[in-house]
Amino acid sequence: AGTGEFEVGISKNGQTREHALLAFTLGVKQLIVGVNKMDSTEPPYSESRFEEIKKEVSSYIKKIGYNPAAVAFVPISGWHGDNMLEPSTKMPWFKGWAVERKEGKAEGKCLIEALDAILPPARPTNKPLRLPLQDVYKIGGIGTVPVGRVKTGILKPGTIVVFAPANITTEVKSVEMHHEALQEAVPGDNVGFNVKNVSVKELRRGYVAGDSKNNPPKGAADFTAQVIVLNHPGQIS
User: Fold this and answer.
1) Where does the pLDDT of residue 146 fall: very low under 50, low under 70, confident under 90, or very high at 90 and above?
2) How wide is the angle at C-alpha 91 spanned by C-alphas 7 and 79, nearest 5°?
3) Are 125 and 135 in contact, with CB atoms under 8 Å apart?
4) Which helix (H) or strand (E) holds 53?
5) pLDDT value at residue 13
6) For the chain, which residues make up each domain, given as ranges?
7) CATH class of 5-117
8) pLDDT value, residue 181
9) Per the record's keyword annotation, is Isomerase included, yes or no (predicted)?
10) Are strands 143-149 and 168-177 parallel, antiparallel or unpaired?
11) Beta strands in the chain (DSSP E)
Protein backbone atom coordinates (compact mmCIF):
# COMPACT_ATOMS: atom_id res chain seq x y z
CA ALA A 1 0.00 0.00 0.00
CA GLY A 2 3.08 2.26 0.18
CA THR A 3 2.90 5.45 -1.87
CA GLY A 4 3.79 4.58 -5.46
CA GLU A 5 4.48 0.91 -4.67
CA PHE A 6 1.01 -0.41 -5.44
CA GLU A 7 1.01 1.54 -8.70
CA VAL A 8 4.21 -0.19 -9.84
CA GLY A 9 2.83 -3.64 -8.97
CA ILE A 10 -0.47 -3.15 -10.78
CA SER A 11 1.03 -1.42 -13.84
CA LYS A 12 0.96 -3.16 -17.22
CA ASN A 13 3.95 -5.42 -16.53
CA GLY A 14 3.75 -5.23 -12.74
CA GLN A 15 4.31 -8.18 -10.40
CA THR A 16 0.91 -7.98 -8.70
CA ARG A 17 -0.73 -8.50 -12.07
CA GLU A 18 1.67 -11.24 -13.05
CA HIS A 19 1.33 -13.16 -9.78
CA ALA A 20 -2.47 -13.09 -9.84
CA LEU A 21 -2.52 -14.32 -13.44
CA LEU A 22 0.09 -17.02 -12.79
CA ALA A 23 -1.84 -18.26 -9.74
CA PHE A 24 -5.02 -18.58 -11.80
CA THR A 25 -3.16 -20.17 -14.71
CA LEU A 26 -1.62 -22.79 -12.41
CA GLY A 27 -5.04 -23.71 -11.08
CA VAL A 28 -4.95 -21.91 -7.72
CA LYS A 29 -8.66 -21.46 -7.09
CA GLN A 30 -8.63 -19.69 -3.72
CA LEU A 31 -7.05 -16.31 -3.20
CA ILE A 32 -6.36 -13.97 -0.27
CA VAL A 33 -5.30 -10.38 -0.90
CA GLY A 34 -3.14 -9.03 1.92
CA VAL A 35 -2.69 -5.28 1.50
CA ASN A 36 0.70 -4.87 3.18
CA LYS A 37 2.66 -1.83 4.42
CA MET A 38 -0.47 -0.07 5.69
CA ASP A 39 1.88 1.73 8.11
CA SER A 40 3.50 3.62 5.23
CA THR A 41 0.43 5.01 3.49
CA GLU A 42 -0.23 8.75 3.37
CA PRO A 43 -1.52 9.32 6.10
CA PRO A 44 -0.54 6.04 7.84
CA TYR A 45 -3.24 3.34 8.05
CA SER A 46 -5.40 5.15 5.50
CA GLU A 47 -8.85 3.69 4.91
CA SER A 48 -9.24 5.43 1.54
CA ARG A 49 -5.94 3.98 0.31
CA PHE A 50 -7.07 0.47 1.30
CA GLU A 51 -10.44 0.94 -0.42
CA GLU A 52 -8.76 2.29 -3.57
CA ILE A 53 -6.49 -0.77 -3.77
CA LYS A 54 -9.34 -3.16 -2.98
CA LYS A 55 -11.45 -1.68 -5.77
CA GLU A 56 -8.69 -1.83 -8.37
CA VAL A 57 -7.44 -5.33 -7.48
CA SER A 58 -11.04 -6.63 -7.37
CA SER A 59 -11.71 -5.43 -10.88
CA TYR A 60 -8.44 -6.92 -12.13
CA ILE A 61 -8.82 -10.38 -10.54
CA LYS A 62 -12.40 -10.50 -11.83
CA LYS A 63 -11.08 -10.08 -15.39
CA ILE A 64 -8.67 -12.98 -14.80
CA GLY A 65 -11.49 -15.25 -13.63
CA TYR A 66 -11.63 -14.99 -9.83
CA ASN A 67 -14.84 -14.04 -8.04
CA PRO A 68 -13.96 -11.04 -5.80
CA ALA A 69 -16.83 -11.93 -3.41
CA ALA A 70 -14.92 -15.12 -2.53
CA VAL A 71 -11.61 -13.29 -1.91
CA ALA A 72 -10.65 -11.90 1.51
CA PHE A 73 -9.02 -8.44 1.44
CA VAL A 74 -7.03 -7.77 4.61
CA PRO A 75 -5.14 -4.53 5.38
CA ILE A 76 -1.93 -5.51 7.19
CA SER A 77 1.50 -4.35 8.26
CA GLY A 78 3.94 -7.23 8.39
CA TRP A 79 6.58 -4.98 9.95
CA HIS A 80 4.38 -3.94 12.89
CA GLY A 81 2.24 -7.08 12.95
CA ASP A 82 -1.04 -5.22 12.36
CA ASN A 83 -4.00 -7.51 11.55
CA MET A 84 -1.67 -10.48 11.14
CA LEU A 85 -2.55 -12.59 14.18
CA GLU A 86 -4.87 -10.24 16.06
CA PRO A 87 -6.99 -7.19 15.20
CA SER A 88 -5.01 -3.94 15.05
CA THR A 89 -5.98 -0.89 17.09
CA LYS A 90 -4.46 1.28 14.33
CA MET A 91 -7.28 0.52 11.87
CA PRO A 92 -10.54 0.89 13.81
CA TRP A 93 -12.29 1.57 10.48
CA PHE A 94 -11.65 -2.02 9.34
CA LYS A 95 -14.65 -4.09 10.38
CA GLY A 96 -13.19 -7.35 9.06
CA TRP A 97 -13.18 -9.38 5.86
CA ALA A 98 -16.01 -11.61 4.66
CA VAL A 99 -16.21 -14.12 1.81
CA GLU A 100 -19.11 -15.88 0.14
CA ARG A 101 -18.67 -19.09 -1.83
CA LYS A 102 -20.85 -22.06 -2.65
CA GLU A 103 -19.31 -24.09 0.21
CA GLY A 104 -20.48 -21.44 2.68
CA LYS A 105 -19.53 -18.08 4.14
CA ALA A 106 -16.55 -17.11 6.26
CA GLU A 107 -15.46 -13.95 8.03
CA GLY A 108 -12.74 -12.67 10.32
CA LYS A 109 -10.52 -9.76 11.30
CA CYS A 110 -6.97 -10.89 10.53
CA LEU A 111 -4.80 -12.62 7.99
CA ILE A 112 -4.37 -15.85 9.96
CA GLU A 113 -8.15 -16.34 10.04
CA ALA A 114 -8.30 -15.81 6.28
CA LEU A 115 -5.64 -18.51 5.89
CA ASP A 116 -7.60 -20.84 8.19
CA ALA A 117 -10.72 -20.27 6.06
CA ILE A 118 -9.05 -21.72 2.95
CA LEU A 119 -10.79 -24.98 2.04
CA PRO A 120 -8.43 -27.93 1.56
CA PRO A 121 -8.80 -29.32 -1.98
CA ALA A 122 -10.13 -32.85 -2.47
CA ARG A 123 -7.35 -35.29 -3.36
CA PRO A 124 -8.34 -37.32 -6.45
CA THR A 125 -7.40 -40.74 -4.97
CA ASN A 126 -10.19 -42.59 -6.79
CA LYS A 127 -8.85 -41.87 -10.29
CA PRO A 128 -6.27 -44.13 -12.01
CA LEU A 129 -2.66 -43.60 -10.93
CA ARG A 130 -0.71 -40.90 -12.78
CA LEU A 131 2.75 -39.90 -11.62
CA PRO A 132 4.88 -37.77 -13.99
CA LEU A 133 8.60 -38.28 -13.33
CA GLN A 134 10.61 -35.23 -12.32
CA ASP A 135 13.89 -37.12 -12.14
CA VAL A 136 15.46 -40.57 -11.94
CA TYR A 137 18.30 -41.42 -9.55
CA LYS A 138 20.63 -44.34 -9.11
CA ILE A 139 21.24 -44.88 -5.42
CA GLY A 140 23.98 -47.26 -4.29
CA GLY A 141 22.67 -50.32 -2.47
CA ILE A 142 19.07 -49.50 -3.43
CA GLY A 143 19.00 -49.21 -7.21
CA THR A 144 16.87 -47.15 -9.56
CA VAL A 145 14.71 -44.51 -7.88
CA PRO A 146 12.29 -42.45 -10.01
CA VAL A 147 11.03 -39.29 -8.30
CA GLY A 148 7.83 -37.33 -8.91
CA ARG A 149 4.55 -36.06 -7.53
CA VAL A 150 1.44 -38.23 -7.51
CA LYS A 151 -1.20 -36.37 -9.56
CA THR A 152 -4.07 -38.86 -9.26
CA GLY A 153 -4.62 -42.28 -7.72
CA ILE A 154 -2.53 -44.08 -5.10
CA LEU A 155 0.97 -45.56 -5.32
CA LYS A 156 1.82 -48.45 -2.97
CA PRO A 157 4.71 -50.86 -2.58
CA GLY A 158 3.89 -53.98 -4.59
CA THR A 159 2.10 -52.07 -7.37
CA ILE A 160 3.05 -53.25 -10.87
CA VAL A 161 3.66 -49.93 -12.61
CA VAL A 162 4.03 -49.15 -16.28
CA PHE A 163 6.01 -46.16 -17.54
CA ALA A 164 4.60 -44.41 -20.60
CA PRO A 165 5.52 -43.81 -23.37
CA ALA A 166 8.36 -46.38 -23.16
CA ASN A 167 5.93 -49.09 -22.00
CA ILE A 168 8.29 -50.47 -19.34
CA THR A 169 6.58 -52.57 -16.66
CA THR A 170 8.06 -53.30 -13.24
CA GLU A 171 7.21 -53.78 -9.57
CA VAL A 172 7.48 -51.01 -6.98
CA LYS A 173 9.62 -52.29 -4.11
CA SER A 174 9.23 -49.34 -1.76
CA VAL A 175 7.91 -45.77 -1.64
CA GLU A 176 9.63 -42.99 0.31
CA MET A 177 8.87 -39.38 1.18
CA HIS A 178 11.35 -37.22 3.12
CA HIS A 179 13.45 -40.34 3.82
CA GLU A 180 10.56 -42.20 5.42
CA ALA A 181 8.94 -45.32 4.00
CA LEU A 182 5.28 -44.90 3.03
CA GLN A 183 2.56 -47.54 2.86
CA GLU A 184 0.81 -45.41 0.26
CA ALA A 185 1.40 -42.13 -1.57
CA VAL A 186 -1.60 -39.94 -2.44
CA PRO A 187 -2.07 -36.96 -4.80
CA GLY A 188 0.18 -34.07 -3.78
CA ASP A 189 2.86 -36.33 -2.31
CA ASN A 190 6.32 -35.84 -3.79
CA VAL A 191 7.90 -39.28 -3.57
CA GLY A 192 10.80 -41.44 -4.61
CA PHE A 193 10.08 -45.09 -5.32
CA ASN A 194 12.40 -48.00 -5.87
CA VAL A 195 11.76 -50.20 -8.93
CA LYS A 196 13.08 -53.66 -9.80
CA ASN A 197 15.19 -54.59 -12.81
CA VAL A 198 15.03 -51.23 -14.58
CA SER A 199 18.19 -49.28 -15.26
CA VAL A 200 18.43 -45.55 -14.78
CA LYS A 201 19.09 -45.19 -18.53
CA GLU A 202 15.68 -46.62 -19.46
CA LEU A 203 13.68 -43.96 -17.61
CA ARG A 204 13.71 -40.21 -17.97
CA ARG A 205 12.07 -37.02 -16.78
CA GLY A 206 8.64 -36.57 -18.36
CA TYR A 207 7.69 -40.25 -18.41
CA VAL A 208 4.42 -41.01 -16.62
CA ALA A 209 3.97 -43.93 -14.22
CA GLY A 210 0.59 -45.64 -13.97
CA ASP A 211 -0.89 -48.85 -12.55
CA SER A 212 -0.60 -51.60 -15.18
CA LYS A 213 -3.85 -53.15 -13.91
CA ASN A 214 -5.97 -49.98 -13.78
CA ASN A 215 -6.27 -47.81 -16.91
CA PRO A 216 -2.53 -47.23 -17.44
CA PRO A 217 -1.40 -44.12 -19.37
CA LYS A 218 -1.25 -44.66 -23.12
CA GLY A 219 -0.80 -42.68 -26.31
CA ALA A 220 -3.65 -40.62 -27.73
CA ALA A 221 -4.39 -39.59 -31.32
CA ASP A 222 -5.52 -36.18 -30.07
CA PHE A 223 -6.27 -34.39 -26.82
CA THR A 224 -8.05 -31.29 -25.57
CA ALA A 225 -5.81 -28.71 -23.92
CA GLN A 226 -6.49 -25.55 -21.97
CA VAL A 227 -4.09 -22.92 -23.24
CA ILE A 228 -3.60 -19.64 -21.42
CA VAL A 229 -1.54 -16.95 -23.14
CA LEU A 230 0.22 -14.85 -20.51
CA ASN A 231 1.38 -11.99 -22.68
CA HIS A 232 1.11 -11.60 -26.42
CA PRO A 233 1.80 -8.56 -28.58
CA GLY A 234 -1.01 -8.08 -31.08
CA GLN A 235 -4.00 -10.25 -31.84
CA ILE A 236 -4.09 -14.03 -32.02
CA SER A 237 -6.36 -15.16 -34.82
Assistant:
1) very high
2) 65
3) no
4) helix 47-64
5) 72
6) 5-117, 130-211
7) alpha beta
8) 95
9) no
10) unpaired
11) 32-35, 72-75, 97-101, 104-108, 131-139, 143-149, 160-164, 168-177, 180-182, 190-195, 208-211
